[in-house]
Amino acid sequence: MSEPLRFRGGGFVTRPKPISSCLAGLAVVAIWQAVASAGWVSPVFLPSPAGIARALAEMALSGQLWRHLAASLQRILLGFALGSAAGLAFGLALGLLSHARAAGLPIVSALFPIPKIALLPLFILWFGIGEPSKVATIALGVFFPMAIATYSGVDQVPRTLIRMAQSFDVPTHAVVAKVILPGALPGILSGVRISASIALILVVAAEMIGAEFGVGAFILTAGNLMRTEDLLAGVCLLSILGLAVGFLVSLAERRLLAWR
Question: Quick one: CA dihedral 212, 246, 232, 137, positive or negative?
Fold first, then answer.
């Protein structure tokens, strides 16, 4: 009797492996701690994970951690909201309208490579040294990847689906809402993931240039004072924020893209 053939059409579907992720992270921390405990590297140059954890705990107990974290999160959320909303609208226009694509795509291609932090002094001249200049820097940095990701996602929607909906006389707004946006959603969520990381980078750079509170300002102060445990504590805090953003985007992808 012949055996049934094993199904081999998995399609490279990835599955979450939380145990592997935890083991990899623990291995890195354990090696780092072993190197620091053995005294192979001076704690001035590379503090141990235990020292960094102690610095984070002291910051949390003193309230300093929450003050800096709240200031950075406020800037990130506001800048990300403004930049992503504008980028989403502009990317949809690029993907759907021929005139908008002809006029807007060269502008995006010309301005996207400019380091956005280089424009912060100009924004300070326009908006002052306070929050608006920092939020504008973050929003501008988020705008371009969101616009490009949305435009690419719209452009990759199969045209046969759009033509099929139009052949049944579906209104234009319904075609956009029920065909184009769901089809472009994977690209849009990829843009959200990239834009959130860029927002983290830009908020740190902006706070280093001119801010009293914020994770970037804290890291700069700790570096100037050679408090490397505090400096790496701030860096670890940024890593935790990045992991949290990645987790939230992955959760949104599982919920919104379950139809795939």
Answer: negative
